[in-house]
Amino acid sequence: MQVVKKALQQPVSLILFIAAIIILAIAPQYAKRYTVISLITILMYVNLTMSWTIFSGPTNYISLASAGFFGVGVYLTAVFGRELPLYALAIMGGGISLGLAILIGLLTLRLKGVYFILFTFGVSALLRHSISWWEATITGTVGRFVRGPGNETVYYYLLGVTVLVFVTAYVVRNTKFGLALQGIGENEEAAAHIGINVTLYKIAGFGLSAIFMGATGAIMANRWTYIDPTIAFNPLISFLPVLMAIFGGTSRLAGPILGATIFTLLQEYLITSYPYYYMLLMGITLIVVILFLPEGLLGLMSRLVERLSRIKVIKEFIARFRSA
Amino acid sequence: MLLQGENLTKSYGGLMAVHDAAFHVNEGEILGLIGPNGAGKTTLFNLISGAVEPTSGTITFKNENITGKKPHQICKKGIGRTFQSSKLFNGMTVFDNVFMAIQFGQSTGMSDKDARARVLELLDYVNLIHEQHTIIRDLSIGVQKRVEIARSLATKPDLLLLDEVMAGLNPSEVESSMELISKIRDQGITVFMIEHVMKAIMSVCDRIVVFHNGTNLVEGTPAEVSSNPTVIKVYLGE
Q: Which residues in chain A have their CB less than 8 angstroms from residue B89's CB?
């Protein structure tokens, strides 16, 4: 209830959020096919980055298990795509990822720092290789064809997950849950000693972030006609959300959205305009951001606003605007 | 008896950090825990607060066996603690540090509004009301120690474990810390404190336990302990 009250106290952000959803909801009716495909890629990364930030943002437990959770969803659709409707696959993808995250959480969340990072990365690799091994030795097939619904359906499903993940992230951030995760990130031992059940909160946070990754994977599988373990559990899916979150900044909810969107657009632009130098340019951009923008694009924006508001003409304009 | 430990042992491989120790804390007293470096004092606190599980032995709090319970459970049972090297939420404000302890540490819930009022009350109590919006990492050690005390008080403890809250403080800060500790006791909270500042421990404690090589060596009033030949031998050598 308090969360709803808080949301209503920020009318500008609330209106912006609703407006963005409405624009995105009607976009496919007017936009070109290519735009819809680009939007699908953006939404996928927004979903992954936001869900990653729910847990890893406040706790500083850098998880590289994203590819694992995403891949489980992808594979689920690859296997049962013909028998089950997409909503069932999305829910199951989320559910299985949640179960997997709880299992991994029980095993690994006592690990800290680099050990946790490496273990979660190992989990993604283990899943990929287990399925490859299974297919090669038991079923004797590698890869599957998926013939799912069209782009527009995929788009709307992804948008649905985006809304869910955004609302979840907002609720987590503005309740005791988020406070507990933040306390764990600041000092886990102290958090435990002031009454926070650290194990419970860590597993719940990790599980929550996995749900949306699994659901996104189950939906995205329909974008690719051919799926094998290397595609489903692509390690880049583990790294990109981390980079995008850093790129955007994690201090506010808008950060991961901004990071994922601009990063994806930049990637698309560089691939099409400079196919030979794309990786080089991407690498340079990342280094510049990490070195000079420790708080990501969010930090840059707030610094720009601050600079601008110091310029006399703009200051007067704002003052006049306020008095009017 | 509020808290009691019997046959407590904690070994790390071959090293006995605490070895067959016994102690008790009476309700309403200020009990001091002293001993040379490496005597096992902080390990004993870790055993009580649940940070470390004892290898053997039992700890009883309010007639309930709390051995092996997790820190968050022990906190809710009414034992608060501070840390030797401060463990605060460094990126957060003084206010938020205390606010979090109220939100999570108390066994009964509190409305947001009441919790906020309680934070201000506690900050006033430890004389930090003017620092409420400061981020922890911008504060001096002395002030940080007081935030630790406020934060542990926010969990509504019946027993407060203070681990060297006076280390690194200047003489006037030590003086006000002593006053604060007496004030906390007068309010009905039992205090168990580790301290190296002898002047403080001698004047503020009702009773003192001396630890050496992981076990309790001597206990008694400050006067008894300071004149005890074994204690003098342990501290000064032969």
A: 182-183, 186-187, 190-191
Q: Which helix (H) or strand (E) is A263 found in, with range?
A: helix A254-273
Q: Where are the domains of chain B?
A: 1-78+157-238, 87-156
Q: What is the residue whose two structure tokens read 């799912």? A: A148
Establish how many alpha carbons lie within 13 A of residue A90's alpha carbon, considering only the half-sphere containing its beta carbon.
19
Domain with CATH 1.10.3470 in chain A: 2-282
The ipTM is 0.91
The Cα B16–Cα B88 span in angstroms is 29
Distances (CA, A) of A259 to A58, A115, A245, A263, A267: 17, 26, 6, 6, 12
Which CATH fold topology does B1-78+157-238 show?
Answer: Rossmann fold (3.40.50)
With a CB cutoff of 8 Å and minimum separation 6, the contacts of A300 are A293
The answer to whether A195 contacts chain B (CB < 8 Å) is: yes
The per-residue pLDDT for range B40-74, each reduced to its tens digit, is 999 999 999 999 999 999 999 999 999 999 999 99
Q: Does A229 touch chain B (CB under 8 A)?
A: no
Q: Please state, in angstroms and as integers, the Cα–Cα distance from residue A246 to each residue in A240, A305, B63, following that order.
A: 10, 20, 51
CB atoms inside a 10 Å sphere around CB A303: 12
Q: Please tell me which of the candidates B75, B92, B106 has its beta carbon nearest to residue A193.
A: B75
Give pTM, 2 decimals. Answer: 0.89
Domain A2-282, second-level architecture:
Orthogonal Bundle (1.10)
